[in-house]
């Protein structure tokens, strides 16, 4: 297939799993659109509606501007690669991507450049959703629809569609998994290795985790440390947890990158009396779960495939179409991805989606 004229990056996981996960199949869309009536006129309208969806066949040329993050973390790097490799799969998509930045002023300037280039659609993962809201508003008011990726802008007027992960659900599913594993353990103790407390996503993950544990009266969270999504901070904060608690039954770590450091601290301390649940879904974590030779027994997904799906949505917007699997003529205003729990039982299904 033709490569986008201005893009970099390498191909990642298979496209079929991404599209089916988010949108279903074109046949399902046709069924939704036409299966509820036998009226001929309605069927004809349904057939027209079902056909007016974005699919893999080349259509109207669309130039997508992609303003992603600085790739200083495994998950963020995967976001950039997923978006770029997805665009390469479409003959009718040209991707114009920025270098990526965690600096607000620099990212605003990059988005201004994309607006001035008059791209058809913008995909933006803001370094700071609140601070970048004005950039989204400017694009929308310039007539360029915005797909807001993950970190949400403060105003719904700043984007046409938001797609991202479920931070609360991530904590909830981690807590329920741990609760079920410990439901028969008397006076069970758990600890939490969180992300940066200045980020709303960290607070949402902790809230979901705490809410899940309320369903298990025998399980009590006895300690919490906030790390920085880095290997070094994970090791330092995990060491503090291990020193503070001589025994506990489970650990939830918000991020698989900082989990590398956490596992180092655990190994150095010679501790293995507890189970560990990770977060985000790195390939390393999944391989460890598959081998079943460490305390790490599960990880809760925060899938970077959302960037690939954002390209799908942007292409559909640029072509004025809906998406396969939905009866509506327009793409949704908001899509929240599910935070699946990956264990030894299902890890082979999810391993191709793991990020490095």
From TrEMBL:
Entry keyword Transport: no
UniProt keyword Metal-binding present? no
Instruction: Cite the Gene3D superfamilies for this sequence.
Output: 3.40.50.2300
Signal sequence segment: none
Source domain of life is: Bacteria
Stretches assigned to the Periplasmic binding protein domain: 64-321
- Tell me the protein family, please: Belongs to the bacterial solute-binding protein 2 family.
Subcellular location, in the record's words? Cell envelope
Which species does this protein come from?
Answer: Streptomyces oceani
Pfam families, per the entry: Peripla_BP_4
| Name of this chain's protein | Sugar ABC transporter substrate-binding protein
- Chain segments annotated as coiled-coil in the UniProt record: none
**GO annotations of cellular component type:** cell envelope
- Please give one Gene Ontology molecular function term for this protein: carbohydrate binding
Q: What UniProt keywords apply to this chain's record, in alphabetical order?
A: Signal
The UniProt entry lists the main location of this chain as other
Looking up SUPFAM superfamilies in the UniProt record yields: Periplasmic binding protein-like I
């Amino acid at each position: 297939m033709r490569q986008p004229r201005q893009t970099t990056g390498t191909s990642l996981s298979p496209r079929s799993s991404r599209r089916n996960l988010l949108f279903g199949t074109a046949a399902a869309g046709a069924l939704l659109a036409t299966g509820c009536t036998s009226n001929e006129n309605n069927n004809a309208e349904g057939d027209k509606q079902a056909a007016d969806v974005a699919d893999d066949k080349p259509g109207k040329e669309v130039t997508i501007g992609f303003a992603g993050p600085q790739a200083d973390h495994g998950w963020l790097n995967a976001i950039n690669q997923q978006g770029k490799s997805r665009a390469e799969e479409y003959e009718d998509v040209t991707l114009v991507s920025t270098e990526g930045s965690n600096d607000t002023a620099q990212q605003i300037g990059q988005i201004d450049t994309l607006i001035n280039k008059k791209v058809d659609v913008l995909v933006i993962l803001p370094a700071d959703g609140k601070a970048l809201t004005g950039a989204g508003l400017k694009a929308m008011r310039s007539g360029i629809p915005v797909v807001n990726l993950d970190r949400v802008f403060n105003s719904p007027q700043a984007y046409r569609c938001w797609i991202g992960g479920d931070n609360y659900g991530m904590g909830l599913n981690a807590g329920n998994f741990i609760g079920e594993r410990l439901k028969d353990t008397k006076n069970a103790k758990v600890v939490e290795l969180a992300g940066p407390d200045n980020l709303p996503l960290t607070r949402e993950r902790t809230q979901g985790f705490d809410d899940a544990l309320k369903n298990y009266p025998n399980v009590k969270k006895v300690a919490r440390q906030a790390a920085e999504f880095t290997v070094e901070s994970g090791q330092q904060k995990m060491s503090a947890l291990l020193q503070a608690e001589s025994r506990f039954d489970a650990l939830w770590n918000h991020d698989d990158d900082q989990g590398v450091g956490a596992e180092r601290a655990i190994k150095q301390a010679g501790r293995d009396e507890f189970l560990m649940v990770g977060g985000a879904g790195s390939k390393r974590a999944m391989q460890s779960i598959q081998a079943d030779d460490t305390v790490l027994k599960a990880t809760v997904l925060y899938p970077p495939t959302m960037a690939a799906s954002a390209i799908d949505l942007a292409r559909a917007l640029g072509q004025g179409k809906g998406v396969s699997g939905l009866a509506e003529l327009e793409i949704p205003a908001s899509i929240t991805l599910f935070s699946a729990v990956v264990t030894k039982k299902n890890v082979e299904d999810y391993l191709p989606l793991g990020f490095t």
